[in-house]
Write a structure and sequence with these properties.
The chain is an alpha+beta fold. It contains ten helices and 14 strands. The chain has a single domain, classed as BirA Bifunctional Protein, domain 2, CATH 3.30.930.10. About 35% of the residues lie in helices and about 25% in strands.
Length: about 325
């Protein structure tokens, strides 16, 4: 109960923070025709029965991102949401297949302003010093900012951007054995998990910024260096807490990225869904320049309360997480 009561207190503080900042709280559908385009996405499907039309397959959303961006196009202005989302196959002390995502978008925001706003939110809902899973962070000083390229230089000993998307060259430079069938992306994430992430957010929060363009997802490329995208992740107490983009607003480039991601996903998984044409149509209509961020709210509650596992901050966790 102490963890759950702390979760409720954090929820109230988050709402107060955004209401004071001029945001509108929204709620978008959980049942959607297309749950997202991430390559390794594993979504839950269901059948929607209609009395007058044929049954159709729908999906539990994995993120409210596409729907919230459609609201931005419609003129909603700054918005936030506590969204229930579902991702199949995720069970661990930090993962639940059903969880809460705190997501917000601000028109005309850039990476620096979103980082500043995120820092203020974290400080406003947490104690000055937090401890979770044996790691303590000091929230009173400056949060660390580190580019992905600098992190690879520091912790892997390679020039990531200089090497480019060449798996053999990256493996050789990192002193790693390239596994059978391992792509550059596979190796990139293996090095991230094994050598980079264990060093992030250890004594103070870390913003890991400027991801390689191949990992842009829905972020725009940095106008100053097109090799990287305006994307960041936040690590607190060694836990990945948030993922953020300065949003891509070009519908042509976004469609091309989706098609490339779908081709890779089709090669690995059977289940699929149609391309989200409503979202792409909204981009074509004109989405304002903006930045957005998704925070794992259950993890935020864990850090704020000092819980050791995600099941401790869920009111009725799945049996696997109790």
């Amino acid at each position: 109960m102490p963890f759950l009561r702390r979760r409720s207190a954090v929820t109230r503080r988050v709402r107060g923070f955004f209401e004071a900042g001029g945001y509108t709280e929204v709620q978008t559908p959980y049942l959607v025709p297309a749950p997202g385009e991430e390559v390794h996405l594993r979504a839950f499907s269901t059948v929607c029965e209609h009395p007058d039309d044929p049954d159709r397959t729908l999906w539990l959303n994995t993120s409210p991102e596409f729907a919230m961006k459609r609201l931005l196009v419609a003129g909603a202005g700054p918005i936030f949401q506590f969204a229930r989302v579902w991702r199949n196959g995720e069970f661990s002390p930090l993962h639940s297949p059903e969880f809460t995502m705190l997501e917000w978008y601000r028109p005309d925001a850039g990476m620096d302003s979103l980082i500043e706003e995120t820092t203020r939110l974290i400080r406003s809902v947490m104690a000055p010093y937090v401890q979770c899973r044996g790691i303590q962070n000091d929230l009173t000083g400056d949060f660390e900012r580190l580019t992905v390229a600098d992190a690879f230089t520091r912790y892997v000993g390679v020039d990531l951007l200089g090497i480019g998307e060449d798996a053999l060259s990256l493996a050789a430079a990192a002193g790693a054995r390239l596994r059978e069938g391992e792509t550059w992306e596979d190796l990139f994430f293996r090095l991230m998990l094994e050598r980079v992430e264990p060093n992030l957010g250890r004594t103070r929060p870390t913003f890991l910024t400027h991801w390689p363009a191949a990992q842009a997802a829905l972020a725009r490329r940095d106008p100053a260096d097109p090799r990287v995208a305006e994307r960041f992740e936040l690590f607190v107490c060694g836990i990945e807490l948030a993922n953020a983009f300065v949003e891509l607003t070009d519908p042509v480039e976004q469609r091309a990225r989706f098609i490339a991601d779908r081709a890779r996903r089709h090669a690995m998984y059977e289940k699929d869904w149609p391309l989200d044409e409503d979202f792409l149509a909204a981009l074509a209509h004109g989405m304002p320049s903006c930045a957005g961020i998704a925070v794992g709210f259950d993890r935020l509650a864990m850090i704020a309360s000092g819980a050791d596992r995600i099941g401790q901050v869920l009111w009725l966790p799945p049996d696997d997480l109790i």
